[in-house]
Structure formats: C-alpha cells, structure tokens
Design a protein that fits this description.
about 290 residues; alpha+beta; TATA-Binding Protein; Endonuclease III, domain 1; six-stranded antiparallel sheet; two-stranded antiparallel ribbon; DNA-binding
DNA sequence: AAACAGGAACCAC
DNA sequence: GTGGTTCCTGTT
C-alpha cells in the first residue's frame, strides 16, 4: 500500500483490504454518506473530504500535504488486515463471515465525537443515528464552505454541546437520551479528558466510560474500539447476539461468562473480528 | 394503527 | 449482580 500526497489529494495506491463504502457505512462512524455521483463524502477533524476510487486507486480529495499521516492513521491503513482476515478465515465457525466483512477498516475516530455519537446510538439504528448526528452538527457545529459551493458542519465542541439545554437536544430527535448527552458533555466540557483513557488498561478505561450518564457496556465498548484504539474491545448488540447464538452457541443465549471467554479466545483483535461478525449478521439479515 | 426495533437507567429482589 | 420495565422515534 503506497500513500502519498498529490494536488490536494491523499492518494492510496495498491490498497489492500480497504473497502471504502463498507468501512464508511457499516455503522462504526456516522458522518460519511454516499453521494449521487458515487463518491463518498465524510467529515473528521473538522475537515470534509471526498473519497473517490478509480483503477484500483483510492483518492481522498480536499486534503493538505501534512494530512497524509492524519488520514492514514484515521483509516488505520498501517495495520495488516490481511493477517487478521486470515485468522478469521482459518476459524471454522467464523470463515462464513469473511465475504461480508472483508475490506472493513476500523477507523480511529475523535474520542469526543465517538463518545457522543455512541450515546445517541443506544437503542437506535444506523440511519437514525446519522440523521440525529447531522442535525446536531448543523445546529451547533461550525459551518464550512467548500469550493464547489456546497457546505458541511463540523462536529460540535464539548463547550458548544454543553451549552445546549435538554429541550434543544430533545428537539433534535435524541429522545430520552437528551439528558444523558447534556450531563456527559458538561462533564467533559468541565475538564474531563478522554485522551488518557487510551493509555490505560482496557478494564480501567471501560470503567471510566461506564461512569458517564448514557454509557452502558455496549456503548463503552464501541468508544474503546472505534476511537480509543482498543482492538480487543468487543461490543455486543442485538446483531452480534444473533450471530453469536448461531455461530458459537447452538442457537441458545450465551451467558456473560461465555461471551467474556469468547472475547479472550478471539485474541488481541477480537474487536476487529467482531466487525466481521456484525456485518455478516446485518448483511445476511439474521433474525429477519 | 398497533407492533416492533434498538441499549441504558432505575428500581426491585 | 440479575430481571423486569420504561424511555423515544421511525418504520411496517
């Protein structure tokens, strides 16, 4: 995989195991959308980028020269997903997931954005989460104009979010999560720093996250996996439950202990493996 | 139009 | 610590 800068774009040549559409739309991040022209538009680090593919080349447009590292880190391009995929392929129970999860890279999102987005994700579906996040950004993010005349909004800072009332959040469609968002955003605006969680043992970081309003086990694991760099965080939602019942537990409901030991058995990349399983469940429509 | 989908809080036990 | 109920909105 060769990554370099050229004329306002970050170019990825010989991309291995990177399916842009699947990665952007699988539910790990909520600010990517496919455009009518087939390109992908997404926002991170307050920057809006357009991603196009041609001749096996992936081009991230609207970048600056110093952004190469930034995006290569965000899209987790330095990791050998081929090796991880091989682990899955070699597992009798998991190999069925490979065609559905292949090419997904786990993005390293900004902690605050992931934190708020996954509080919103509770008891919610991908389409609605994206809609709410978008409204939230339009309501109190920063407006940015693009050269082609269109515009986008950045994700709000903790301060901007903390300044909102429950009523305002409720109107944006967050429902009963409004007070959770207010409380948690205020705690962060008041000085709680999420970054040190990256360097803690996973159990400690998880415990910290669970102390926030609106953050339960599943949301905590999502934040750990999708923004804090814990590739062994193992979020289990209804889709994962369905898939795990079928693949590992002979149709019955696994206990907490069994889930925990499965996580351990899957090893240091269990969270990435989880994404393959999750996508398998969604794409084959398990439980439908 | 009632039923369902989707996690966390909260209160019992 | 486990189990049942409630919270809100969009879809069927």
């Amino acid at each position: 995989m060769d990554i370099y800068y050229k004329n306002g774009s970050v170019i990825i040549e010989n991309a291995q195991n990177f399916n842009v559409e699947r990665s952007c739309l699988c539910g790990q991040a909520f600010r990517f959308s496919k455009q009518r022209d087939g390109s992908m538009f997404g926002i991170a680090f307050n920057k809006g980028v357009r991603i196009i593919e041609y001749n096996g080349i992936i081009e991230i447009q609207n970048c600056e020269e110093q952004d190469v590292k930034l995006w290569s880190n965000y899209f987790d391009l330095e990791r050998d997903y081929g090796q991880i995929e091989k682990i899955i392929l070699d597992d009798e129970r998991l190999s069925v997931c490979v065609p559905y999860g292949s090419g997904i890279r786990i993005f390293k999102q900004e902690p605050f954005e992931a934190f708020i987005s996954f509080i919103i994700s509770a008891n919610n579906n991908i389409k609605r989460i994206s809609g709410i996040v978008e409204k939230l950004c339009a309501y109190c993010g920063e407006k940015k104009e693009l050269e082609n005349g269109s515009h986008y909004y950045t994700f709000p800072t903790p301060e901007r979010l903390a300044a909102l009332s429950e009523e305002e959040l409720f109107k944006l469609g967050t429902g009963y999560r409004a007070p959770y968002i207010v409380k948690s955003a205020r705690r962060i605006a008041d000085g709680y720093d999420l970054l040190p969680l990256k360097n803690m043992p996973i159990e400690s970081a998880r415990k910290e996250l669970l102390s926030f309003s609106g953050v339960g086990p599943k949301v905590a694991d999502c934040i750990l996996l999708f923004s804090l760099g814990f590739t062994n965080a193992f979020p289990i939602d209804v889709w994962m439950r369905r898939a795990l019942r079928e693949l590992f537990f002979d149709g019955r409901e696994p206990s907490k202990k069994e889930l925990e030991s499965l996580n351990l058995r899957l090893g240091e990349y269990s969270g990435i493996v989880q994404q393959y399983i999750f996508n398998y469940a969604r794409e084959v429509g398990l439980g439908k």
